[in-house]
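Objective 1.3, modelling of assemblies. Example input:
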Amino acid sequence: MLLKLLRETGPCSRADLVRASGLSAPSVTNVVAHLASAGLVEPLGEGDSTGGRPPDIVRFRAERGCVAGVEIGPDSLDFLLADLNGRELGRSRIALERRSSTPPAVCAQIGKQIRGLLRKQKRPEDQLLGLVVGVPAIVNVDEGVVFAFSALKDWSNVSLGVMLAREVKCDVTVENDTNLAAQGEYHHGAAQGERNFVYITIGEGVGAGMFVGGNLHRGAQWSAGEIGYLCVPNISREHPAIHKHGSSKRHWAPPES
Amino acid sequence: MARTSVKVNRAADIFDLAAAGNARARRVLKQRATILADVVVDLALILNPSVILLGGEVGNHPALLQEVETLLQGSEFGVVRVGLSALGSSAVLWGAIYTALDPAILGLLQPSESAG
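Predicted structure (tokens):
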């Protein structure tokens, strides 16, 4: 909680933390010491003295580490590197050749690109504390397994989490891209403070990311929100099959000119 | 009746044309908005969300939003606010960053046994 305060309000004194948190002064001192030993906060020297003892200001060390996000699209890989405050440090994009983009090839490209981004920031590889990858497919998030991604070559039941863990030294999470987009809007976009909302994406694919009661709803078999398979009025529903686009998705395709 | 041909590169260009008053593009927009409005009502009836955001290269378009909003008027329940994505094409990447942040910071506070 103190960390959240420090991250959101910026540097503050121990007395500020006591006031804002409702914790006792000794508790705050203990927690700050614990955070300092993890390298997450540091004293900023003495603040403006308004008479009496100068307050000791502490700040969150957002530079203590960084995290990376990757979006695997059918035609490109997009990368974003951010510090622990979620401040952007670097971005990059590389084009993907659909027919040669097998899982091992894509993993190798991701590893190489992330190491490059870290080097550009003059950060050693162990500064990377987390990698989260979005894929346009149904994903078993617990196991890091991508069920099927029909646009690229050989993407069926891929243990992407395990494969990527060989490329980086941090925890790896694999998630459906639309679910991540919903997370983005929830934390940083148009759905801040909304505990029940839906993010619909219409682009190369059609899908929905759903927040129910403040949590992402993924379903029993990870396929919640696959609204591209919903029935379109006046057209009877087909059996959903992973390698076949659903009808509501097909009806979104641009008209033949 | 002569049809003027218009070059369209992206699906969203059609919505730009519709917003500019092109009749053929307006028909396409209306038909797509009708499908989307049905999906929005289905989701609203099942989940009762406070807002449904439209995102993606095609979905994140003000003309589409406006048309869907018009179609939703007149419902007494299954009513939901519809809006556009704020993060646009960066939504997935920012979602990835925010998903990574909390576990990364918690990991520093609970060092594994191997950490020195």
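Chain B has a mean pLDDT of 89.
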